[in-house]
Task: inverse folding
């Protein structure tokens, strides 16, 4: 009985568990995630989803890395918004403050982060870490795929409240 | 039958190392799939070489442990079976947590030798580092990266290149390269290098002298200062212009930085006392330090 117990413990720990890890690791989604994270919200998503918005195009936030800034303007209301999907943590949350600034209009540009349907002034580090943990637990069963968390940094100009309109897409 | 008895006696260390290797496995597979063997070796199979070095030290200590483990109790056997069943869940964090639990069990096991206890402590340090780093980089990324940016700006001031810092962005003030800003991301933070250097220092200090002296903590402070300076200098140089950025960010620069981190960590380890000086059977309470501190 004890022999069986030892052999099954070793069989599981030394063969079945590593095999399971290898199967999960060879999953193409995980390999892709290691090299280039796919955006949670693709380019031109808001132009297709929100009829009042017109795309102003996209630019890379830096000469390397995954960060892309997309711009939108409202069709009727005089206002525009720059959106930047974030990934790992708060590392990209300061990019828009640096890139989208105008000395003359600095007071009229509003910065923040859209996450779980809400507008945050700063990157919600604790809530984001909890969400990451929760997603991590949900992805434990075999066959589940990695769904990126929708979190966007924004810089908005004008009084159209575009950030509030777009927040619901981050659920 | 002999093999079975030996397996039973060594089941706990075996499971500890299996849990650690299970946690490390996916990046190894990704590395082997995306690179050739030489590149995989140079890049440490998706992990820092420090992790492998520390694991080798823990394995060496476990290997030289005298066979004092008694046969396991059936209740303990069931607990170990449960732990191995949990390893089937493909999660690195869970594997590390299981490794910590098993290593604690190994450390506090009755009749556990000094070497076995040291191997268990080193395994716990290896296993704790990853989840702790991940948690800190999720919860305090803004603060950690802003600190990196501040250090690099201080170094830029020292070399007569004043820079402005905005969050985790460093921009050189004026000059011919006005407009070039350096965005410091998680991968370039000193935090990861610091955790690896401290892990290496912790492992080799324990391996050499089995305990920490007051001087060792001073060496740890020196190590932290040197690693912060090394990383801050690298970031400061990258902030100067794009040619420096490409030189220090691409190619084998990451491996060079890791090599320098290992050299600095090993330099900050006391080498006058050797592990071989103490016997395996010595009780921890008997190991009183008589050297001046």
Result:
């Amino acid at each position: 009985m004890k022999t069986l117990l030892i052999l099954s413990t070793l069989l599981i720990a030394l063969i079945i568990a590593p095999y399971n890890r290898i199967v999960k690791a060879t999953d193409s989604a995980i390999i892709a995630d290691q090299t280039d994270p796919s955006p949670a919200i693709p380019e031109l998503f808001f132009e297709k989803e929100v009829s009042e918005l017109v795309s102003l195009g996209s630019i890379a936030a830096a000469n390397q890395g995954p960060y892309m800034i997309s711009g939108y303007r409202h069709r009727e209301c005089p206002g525009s918004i720059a959106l930047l999907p974030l990934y790992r943590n708060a590392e990209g949350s300061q990019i828009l403050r640096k890139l989208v600034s105008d000395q003359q209009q600095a007071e009229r540009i509003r910065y923040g982060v859209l996450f779980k349907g809400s507008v945050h002034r700063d990157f919600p580090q604790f809530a984001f870490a909890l969400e990451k943990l929760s997603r991590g637990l949900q992805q434990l069963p075999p066959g589940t795929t990695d769904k990126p968390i929708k979190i966007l940094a924004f810089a908005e100009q004008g009084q159209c409240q575009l950030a509030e309109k777009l927040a619901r897409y981050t659920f | 039958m002999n093999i079975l008895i030996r397996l039973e006696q060594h089941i706990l260390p075996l499971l500890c190392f299996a849990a650690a290797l299970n946690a490390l496995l996916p990046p190894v597979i990704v590395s082997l799939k995306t690179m050739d063997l030489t590149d995989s070796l140079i890049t440490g199979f998706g992990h820092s070489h420090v992790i492998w070095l520390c694991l080798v030290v823990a394995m060496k200590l476990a290997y030289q442990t005298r066979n004092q483990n008694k046969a396991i109790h059936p209740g303990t056997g069931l607990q170990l079976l449960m732990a191995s069943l949990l390893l089937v869940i493909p999660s690195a964090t869970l594997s590390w947590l299981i490794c910590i639990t098993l290593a604690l069990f190994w450390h506090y096991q009755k009749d556990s030798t000094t070497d076995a206890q040291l191997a268990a402590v080193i395994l716990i340090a290896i296993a704790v580092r990853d989840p702790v780093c991940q948690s800190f980089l999720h919860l305090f990324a803004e603060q950690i990266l802003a600190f990196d940016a501040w250090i690099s700006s201080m170094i830029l001031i020292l070399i007569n290149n004043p820079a402005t810092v905005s969050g985790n962005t460093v921009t050189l003030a004026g000059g011919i390269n006005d407009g070039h800003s350096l965005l410091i991301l998680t991968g370039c933070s000193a935090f990861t290098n610091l955790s690896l250097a401290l892990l290496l220092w912790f492992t080799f200090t324990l391996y050499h002298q089995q305990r920490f002296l007051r001087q060792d903590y001073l060496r740890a402070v020196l190590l932290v200062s040197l690693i912060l300076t090394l990383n801050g200098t690298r970031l400061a140089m990258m902030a100067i212009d794009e040619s420096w950025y490409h030189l220090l960010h691409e190619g084998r620069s990451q491996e060079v930085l890791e090599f320098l981190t290992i050299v600095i960590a090993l330099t900050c380890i006391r080498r006058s006392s050797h592990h071989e000086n103490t016997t395996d059977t010595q009780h921890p309470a008997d190991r009183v330090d008589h050297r001046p501190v």
In short: The longest strand of chain B covers residues 163-166. The beta strands of chain B are 163-166, 169-172, 181-183. Residues 276-293 of chain B have pLDDT under 50 and may be disordered. The CA atoms of residues 120 and 185 of chain B lie 34 Å apart.
